[in-house]
Amino acid sequence: MSRTLLEIWLLPRNLAIGIMHLYRRLISPLYGQVCRYHPSCSRYSLEAYQQRGFLVGLALTVWRLLRCNPFTPGGIDDVPPGLRPIFTINSRGFVRPQDRKA
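^ Putative membrane protein insertion efficiency factor, sequence as received from the core. Prediction below:
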């Protein structure tokens, strides 16, 4: 797959990551530390999109939000590992294709 097609393929994932960055910067501080889980639900969502892609990240985020309620004990809940990554995460948290070594 060409680099341009990979960038287009990553667009929904990076849009979701951008939305999560905005949420974490603007809205999340208003609530304080209320999440029962570690990492917080917003951090979990960000990691899910970064590591697993848009569709799987969305499904993991919805499942996490459904479990985050007063009737669960909470605890440590990391994003389940995926396959070998073919993408890298840059310093701003967005996903880019790995550079192939010739």
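The first helix runs from residue 3 to 31.
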